[in-house]
Amino acid sequence: MKKELSQNYNISLLDDAITYKKLKFNFRKNKEQDHTELLDQSAEKFRYEECKDVYWNPEKFSLLYGTPLWDNSSASERILLNQLYWVAYYSQIISAEIATIYFNQTAAAGLYGIEDFRTVCETLDFESMQERAHISAFKKISEDVEFALFGKRIFSFSMRPYYYETMIFQKTNILKRFWKRLQLQSYGLLSSGNAFIACQYLTVRGLRTLNGKIIQHQLSQFYSDMSPELQKTAPAPSAVSYFHFMDESYHFNSSNIIGTDILKLLKAPKAFERSIAKLGIQGTLKDHSNFSTMVNGIFWYDPATFQAAYDVMRSKVFNFSHKDAINMLEQCFCKENEGIHLGFKTHQTALESYKSYLAGIDYLDEDIRLGGKMKETSIEKYLSQNSLEFQRFKKKAA
User: Fold this and answer.
1) Is the N or the C terminus of the chain less surrounded, counting Cβ atoms within 10 Å?
2) Which one-letter DSSP state was computed for residue 3?
3) Residue-number span of the structural domain to which 173 is assigned
4) pLDDT band at 196 (very low <50, low <70, confident <90, very high)
5) Rounded CA gap, 139 and 94, in Å?
6) Which of 113, 55, 112, 108 minimizes the C-alpha distance to 86?
7) Residue 99 within any structural domain of the chain
């Protein structure tokens, strides 16, 4: 006979044996295969001089791949662009994981009052520990590389609070940043006291990681496809990419279990809860409405990267003159090229996967399920906005 529940929520995770079993299995396998120690070891032994002459990723995952800069680069310069892709990509992942750590904890707090939800909370606690290891490894390697090459930060950044813009290259200003901060802080407060919003955060987390899962799988294959002997001497960043993806595979599973299966155990959301859920998903679709030629697979607002690209070209590594760097910026970002088409293709692949993910969420409006702001993205719009912003950058840099 079922015991009487003296709680605010008349449910138990044990009411759904299949979901409970899935969650327990995923949590157990993640702990058994935890890559934290291997990540720490790889980051600790990283020495840029020891792997500066080799690729760290598959070739197509290189900074400004497919653009005139890539086409006109020497073999050694292409290796550098490949390594800088790693630095730029995982600098963005650091920003995302800082926010993830905080919202994992607020989501867990929002579920404390539900019977038998200990496994959910422990899953999120364990994943937060792993995220801290990921951040530490990415940060050490990225900063070491940028110090060796440039003597300053280009893509990396000092540690910062969770409520900063998640996208490190975003179309923003001081007022937008302040409003975003208020939104994120409010969301954290709401998710810590409401089971539906707590679970729905994992729905948002799953959506945000869909494209990352696709890209990171390909990055991880650079290491996993090596023979065991070659893996022993593989570049440390390549190994970190693999170890990170292995952890994140379990994180993606838990996002789906908590944000989809467990969410269905709760009562139908009230109007206010639905509105908060819609805002969270709309915000993600808006954040991901850009595509990047600079770093294919990241949803950066490329005009915000012009200074970074200019600094790379003007550095002692490429040694462009001011005039040549400005001309190359225009050719890469404002004139149609293969790199732009590749970035747009990745964006459209992400859009289709997002639409599939959102299709079964009945509290969303049709416009959101069809991709929201993401469906408005086009190469024509990209070229137009870049050309306008390039003229402003050109005047400023003169």
Assistant:
1) N
2) P
3) 13-397
4) very high
5) 8
6) 55
7) yes
Q: How many CB atoms lie within 10 A of CB 271?
A: 7
State the amino acid at position 2 in one-letter form: K
The single-letter code of the amino acid at 381 is K
Query: Per the domain annotation, does 188 fall within a domain?
Result: yes
Q: How many domains does the chain have?
A: 1
Q: Is residue 86 part of a domain?
A: yes
Instruction: Read off the tokens for 228.
Output: 């065991």
Give pLDDT tens digits for 162-172. 999 899 999 99
pLDDT at 2 over 90: no
How many other β-carbons are positioned within 10 Å of the β-carbon of residue 120? 25
Q: What is the pLDDT of residue 117?
A: 82
For residue 93, give the nearest of 36, 138, 49 by alpha carbon.
Answer: 138
Q: For residue 287, what is the enclosing H or E element?
A: helix 271-287
Average the pLDDT over each of 4-18, 185-199, 305-319, 325-339 and give the range with the smallest value. Answer: 4-18
* Encoded tokens for 144: 């070491």
Other beta carbons within 10 angstroms of residue 354's beta carbon come to: 25
The rounded distance, in Å, linking the Cα atoms of 130 and 233 is 24
Which residues, at least 6 apart from 117, have a Cβ–Cβ distance to it below 8 Å?
13, 111
Judge whether 4 lies within some domain. no
Q: Nearest to residue 105, comparing CAs of 176, 174, 32, 205?
A: 205
For residue 202, what pLDDT band results from cuts at 50, 70 and 90? very high
Using alpha carbons only, what angle is made at residue 268 by residues 181 and 1, rounded to the nearest 5 degrees? 125
Tokens read off for 376? 């408005």
